[in-house]
Amino acid sequence: MTTMRAIVLDGPGGPEALTIREVPRPAAEPGQVLIEIRAFGLNRSELHFRQGLGSFGSFPRVPGIEATGVVAEAPGGEFARGQQVAAMMGGMGRTIDGGYAEYVVVPASSVVPFSSGLDWSVLGAVPEMLQTAHGSLTTGVDARPGDSLLIRGGTSSVGLALAVIAKQRGLTVLATTRDAAKADVLRAAGADHVVVDDGAVADAVRRIVPEGVSGAVELVGAPALRDTLRATAVHGTVCFTGMLSDQWTVPDFYPIDFLPNGVRLTAYSGEAGDLPAGVLQGFLDAVAADEVSVPIGRVYPFDDIVRAHADMEAGAVAGKLVVTVG
């Protein structure tokens, strides 16, 4: 039997619950794609899964909601062998084994092709981060050139990606951080204004944009949502995307009291199909041309997965954490 190395989680626990072992290498059936993984990014939802939070997934499981690599098998002919691809969502790392491995089998619908000479450590950072940022800006906020955007939770990987692509699209970007020392990280990503978040930023935002921002992406979660709504203009939109606070619900939600008059509240949670191949390719081409940057916080070898998860849990690194395979 052909085997591979994989990172397996037998049940909820701390970072040390992630163990590397030899497991059977999966094979693809028609409608599926076997990907030889070269790198994968870490995501907050994988931290929640490891901790046993939420109702999704089962154990034992190979975690990981995304991966980048090359096609090893595509029995249905959807992709050529050797094609560079990104895979994300579609149950990865939750109901099916995910990207923390040397190989993964995913539905063809979860695969997005690309072609790039960038290093795999860079490519591994992009897919889910870009999908979430792109979807939050377009489907969520419906941001247009000239708009102002508040990114609540700006030093997260998605927050930094939002700053990059929002600036690329001609928006005025306000981004928050709890640590004033990280202001330069936000400015380097494209933030025009940095707001230090002490739990209440609406007044500070309105000193910069008196009428309130055109749109906001909420990445901190439920505890910050009411204040983010207060920072947003009438007919502006707040998109609830992230839960860095690990608090997902608003207790005793009474809409008329909670929502300011005329401020819209929506949400975004996307799949691979929400990241068009042209958007991914265009972003990677822009990175290769030094027109935009990928906000990578740190790159780890496969064997350092425990340290990588410990760093993610501690919030020790600003930007996307990436693991290389092989």
UniProtKB/TrEMBL annotation:
Keyword hit for Transmembrane: no
Sample GO molecular function, one term: oxidoreductase activity, acting on NAD(P)H
Source superkingdom: Bacteria
Keywords recorded for this protein, A-Z: NADP, Oxidoreductase
Residue intervals passing through the bilayer: none
The keyword Oxidoreductase is assigned to this record: yes
Domain annotation Enoyl reductase (ER): ranges: 13-323
Signal peptide coordinates: none
Official protein name in the record: NADPH:quinone reductase
